[in-house]
Structures are given as C-alpha cells and as structure tokens.
Design goal:
- It is a single chain.
- The protein has one domain.
- The protein is 61% helix and 0% strand.
- The protein is globular.
- The N and C termini lie far apart (30 Å).
C-alpha cells in the first residue's frame, strides 16, 4: 500500500517523495515504497558531496556499481570520512544492490536538480 504524504489541511508536500521530479523518477524506475526512506535520506545529501562523489559514479561503473561501492567502503581512506559521508555511501550501496545502475544515475540527476532549485 502506498503512503499518502500530503497533510490533510496542507497541500504542500511533507516529504521529498511527493515532489514531482522525485515522484516521477520513483514511478518510472519502479522504486519500492519500502525504499522511500533511503530516497529521503539521499535527498539530504549536500550538493557538493553528491556531485564530488556520485555525479559520474554510476555511468562510469555501470554494471559494477555495487561492487565498486563495496570496494570504496572497504578502502581504509573511507574510514577517515565523517559518519554522515560514510552513511551516504552505504545508502547508495543498498540502492545500487536493489536497482539497476540507471536508476541510481537518474536519482543522482534528480537530486542534483532538486538541490539546484533550493
């Protein structure tokens, strides 16, 4: 059952899931509702972190995306990252294991546009 996230009196979205670009991407890529909290978490990623780390990641890695992220997470340098940055890598790993690399690529682009508009 799909969650309805609009407030009863308030017609403004109360979740990034209800934003038109994100909603369209979720429907087009058939992102399951149980993964929506991951999308909400990824939407909190600062734009510079998103671009620096993931702008070209998925189209460069393609089918190796999840494995490449696992390699990154096992890299000793990643332990020098703050907990928030490491968490974003972990969320992207889960997303990459659950969906085709093109869904990850599309998610990055949607989040980049969203962050540009804010």
């Amino acid at each position: 059952m799909e969650k309805h996230l609009f407030g009863a009196e308030n017609k403004e979205p109360i979740s990034v899931i209800e934003e038109p670009d994100i909603r369209e991407m979720l429907e087009r890529r058939q992102i399951k509702s149980e993964d929506w909290p991951l999308v909400e978490e990824l939407a909190t990623m600062p734009k510079n972190l998103l671009i620096d780390n993931f702008h070209n990641w998925f189209n460069d890695s393609r089918e190796k995306t999840a494995r490449e992220i696992e390699i990154q997470l096992n890299n000793p340098e990643i332990y020098k990252m703050d907990d928030a940055k490491r968490r974003y890598w972990e969320v992207w790993l889960h997303f990459a294991k659950s969906y085709h690399w093109t869904a990850c690529y599309n998610m990055v682009r949607v989040l980049e546009r969203r962050n540009s508009e804010q």
